[in-house]
Write a structure and sequence with these properties.
Layout (H helix, E strand, L loop, with lengths): L1 H19 L3 E6 L14 E6 L20 E2 L14 E2 L6 E9 H4 L6 E8 L14 E14 L10 E9 L3 H9 L3 E6 L6
Antiparallel strand pairs: 1-2, 3-4, 5-8, 6-7, 6-9, 7-8
Amino acid sequence: MGVVLVLLATALGARVVASADDTVPMYAASTTIRPGDQLSTTNLRRVDVQLGDETRRYLSAHTAPAPDVYALRQVTEGELVPAASVGTREQVSVQPVTVQVDANSAVGLGAGAVVDVWVSPRDPQSTQERYLDAVLELERVSVTPVTADSGRFGAAASTTSVQLRVPRDKVAAIIGDVDKKARFTLVPVPGSGS
């Protein structure tokens, strides 16, 4: 009886150890990946995880990422890359657009921060630099700070350049706002990690 118990314990232990090693290589984001970013070894890292039947839902690391693979949605640093969040360049629904924004509204924003974009149109009736009430132009877009611009006559910078990930159907409106010298203000989305 004692020999049978030892054999059963050994078999059970071997099965537990074998199942504990049932890991598969998958890709996780090594940095925050924004919509439209090309996926490569610079923003992906291999992790070995146990997913069971869920492996099809994530990007496998059995092979290197294909050259024409892009993020369709944001993937935060450390997150496994969902297979549904990747596609071809043609499937990307956002376009990077660089705009000048109020410098104070960009303080503390890092790459991949998620913001709402408010636009204050210039008052066409005024000969001075006056603006109308702000309008919410874009919701929940990711942003990347680009450079700080010096203010007039050596004063502190009043604007800074940022790159917004703009939905393609809104690009023309944003370019129109830039051409009309509207003022852009960024408001961080609570809980977005900005």
